[in-house]
Design a protein that fits this description.
Arc Repressor Mutant, subunit A, Glutaredoxin, alpha+beta, 5 strands
């Protein structure tokens, strides 16, 4: 499987940082790096990881099925994760998630028809003091109201169409 030069360099640095005789320690970060480029953990990705780390497909499958951040189908261009754990829930996280479902017309782990947005309800994103919180790809947004969510979605749509940067 061929990756971009940037991803290949990240994978090489990762492999070089593994303790001697323990390539398996690179499994989760390798899957995340590849998922960022490919979009999902496909059977081809699993075979590639197996050959690089000298692990069995079953070992990779066990990890993929355990970690919710590893996806078997591609996420949207903008992957939105909304925290509904206790800290965020107490300040409107569950209501924000329901609003997002209505606004985007999708549910948990759904992807909009145009592939622009995917939505996921998550347990915690580590922003408990600033809830309700959401993460778009790797960017955090704090104290998000339904109105702020709507503005963010419109900003991302404009950004995608090339009319404005967020």
């Amino acid at each position: 499987m061929k990756f971009s030069d940037e991803t290949e360099a990240r994978l090489q640095r990762l492999m070089a940082s593994c303790p001697p005789g323990n390539k398996r320690s690179a499994l989760v970060p390798m899957l995340l790096f590849i998922q960022d480029e490919v979009g999902a953990i496909t059977p081809e990705v699993i075979q590639e990881v197996c050959s690089r780390l000298e692990v069995s497909p079953l070992e990779v499958e066990e990890v993929v099925s355990y970690y919710s951040m590893l996806r078997r189908k591609p996420a949207g261009r903008y992957h939105l994760q909304i925290c509904t754990n206790i800290s965020c829930m107490l300040v409107g996280g569950a209501e924000l998630f329901e609003h997002a479902c209505r606004k985007l017309g999708i549910g948990h782990q759904g992807v909009t028809e145009d592939g622009l947005f995917s939505l996921e309800e998550v347990e915690c994103i580590g922003a408990c003091c600033w809830g309700p919180a959401l993460q778009v790809n790797y960017d955090y947004y704090h104290n998000v109201t339904p109105e702020a969510f709507d503005r963010l979605i419109e900003q991302l749509r404009r950004n995608h169409s090339g009319r404005s940067e967020p």
